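Pipeline run #58 for the internal structure catalog. This entry was flagged by the ingest filter as a single-chain record with no existing model, so it goes straight to prediction. Upstream metadata was stripped on purpose; only the residue string is passed forward. Reviewer on rotation: M.T. Logging verbosity set to normal.
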Amino acid sequence: MRIKARVTILLGLAFFFSCSGKAFTQDSRYRLQSSDVLNITVHGQPDLTTKTRVSSDGFISFPLLGKVKAGGLTAQELEASLKTGLEKDYLVSAQVLVFIEEYHPRQVSVVGEVKKPGKFDMSLEKDMTLMEAIAMAEGFTKDAYLRTIKVVRKENGKEKTIVVDARDITVKGQKDKDIVLQPDDVIVVPESFF
């Protein structure tokens, strides 16, 4: 009976890791952002177990270390940073695990001359392009001016505007002009005055 139970547990674990392996590799590339919720554990140190949210300026608060930079790091890079900080003054050997419990909402906004303006969720698994976002907004209205669609993006605290002529993509078939969007991009489809 014991052998059967062990085999069942081993098969269950093998199934879990085979199904979740893809998610683990994707998480390893993800860079932490403001409003991500992290669950941090230090092996053998239950008092250091922390659930925290990344602040708007990219920091977390962690016991013994205080304010720690997290924004822009991967979970593994944050683990290494916390390990170094803890081993510097407090622990001989720290085994830190950072688990992302809740991701920053990955959304884009589409406004202006589209049939259904609004905010749309981006997949964690694949990139979203400008035309895919327009399709989620149910396409252009008859009054849309396709020559100067603007993608407004924040990079390093500064606003940047990318202008796209959608006719290059829709009429001329130049798929390379269909730019990849980033979370929090705002797509503005202007009205034609003619």
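catalog note: The longest strand covers residues 96-102.
catalog note: Residues 40 and 50 are 5 Å apart (CA to CA).
status: ready for reviewer M.T.
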